[in-house]
From TrEMBL:
Pfam families per the UniProt record, alphabetical: Mo-co_dimer (PF03404), Oxidored_molyb (PF00174)
Molecular functions per Gene Ontology: heme binding; molybdenum ion binding; molybdopterin cofactor binding; sulfite oxidase activity
CDD domains noted in UniProt: SO_family_Moco_dimer
Protein's recorded name: Sulfite oxidase
Classification via InterPro entries: Ig_E-set, MoCF_OxRdtse_dimer, Mopterin_OxRdtase_euk, OxRdtase_Mopterin-bd_dom, OxRdtase_Mopterin-bd_sf
Span of domain Oxidoreductase molybdopterin-binding: 45-217
Lineage, opening ranks: Bacteria, Bacillati, Bacillota, Bacilli, Bacillales
Gene3D superfamilies per UniProt: 2.60.40.650, Oxidoreductase, molybdopterin-binding domain
Organism field: Neobacillus notoginsengisoli
UniProt record, GO biological process: sulfur compound metabolic process
Amino acid sequence: MDRINQPKVKPYLLTRSLSPENQETPIQFIDADMIPDKLFYRRNHFSYPAFSYSNYFLPINGSVSKPIVLSMQEILEFPSKTIQIVLECSGDKRSFFEPKLFGEQWEKGAISQGYWSGVPLRTLLERSGLSEGAKEVVVEGYDFGERTDLDKVFTFARSLPIEKALHPDTIIAYEYNGKPIPFKHGYPLRLIVPQWYAMASVKWIKQIRVIDSHFTGPFQAIDYVYYPHKETDQEAFPVTTVNVNSTIQKPLDMDILNTGMHEIKGIAWTGQGVISKVEISIDGGTTWLTAKLEPSKNNGYAWQSWSYEWTVSKKGEYVILSKATDSTGRPQPTDPFWNRKGYGYNAIDHVKVKVE
């Protein structure tokens, strides 16, 4: 077949499990700041929920002065905002922990980003009125299933402290990249929580409940908790803010290159401030070179693209390292913070290449 007529090869999601469906974004092949929904990573604890959109209503109740039930039409009539934001699974890169940990063996692709549009959660909470003493806002999804560790059926539910729930950019989203949210990503409504790992961004919202205590559901009190010790729960603390991190997208790990000029490129992101610096090392971390940060128009919630032009004349094997630092001064560590559920991996990234 004539090369010019061959179809363009497209990347696909990398499957980690089918039931429930968990698939990675092919992040090494992404060359854009907006991930199409078909390549957006998928993270599920249970099977996809079943409900009728034609009968969809959103209740807001609990410690509020006026419980309300909103129709989709009413929600769409509130002033909206659009935010470009990274969503990263807290288990992203879990497979790189040593010693190995149980759980979905994510590599580098449990992360995606795009434009989410919706109404600020605070707008809806102001409509219902927060009672004095309200502490947390519980967002419950329609997805549910049995947890074998507890021998009981649960819906997926998480809470936010009042301060985070009232953040102006915490939104109840109904669009992704200008279109209704795809069903597999939370249609018709999904909570979007900037700067926190994506377990907080509850999909398929069923109801919102304000409480005057601390939420103790299993996806908050058992899962999504950092446990620093293998055998005990001492010193445990909740998973919240995204760690500063970076990923090398090019060259690929174990690539064979020729001598000459090569572009090293990737992305960096953080849950505090913005990325202020990305450094590259070709000699195992002895010396560090400053990468170029690509012009960015984001509001601080999106990843930062970066690149470095590497001229190599000597044949041999090289380990390329990338290290990001954010504007609060947090650098990527040499070693990750080991925790027994494998959350928040953010050690300096590396790929190995051979130059012939």
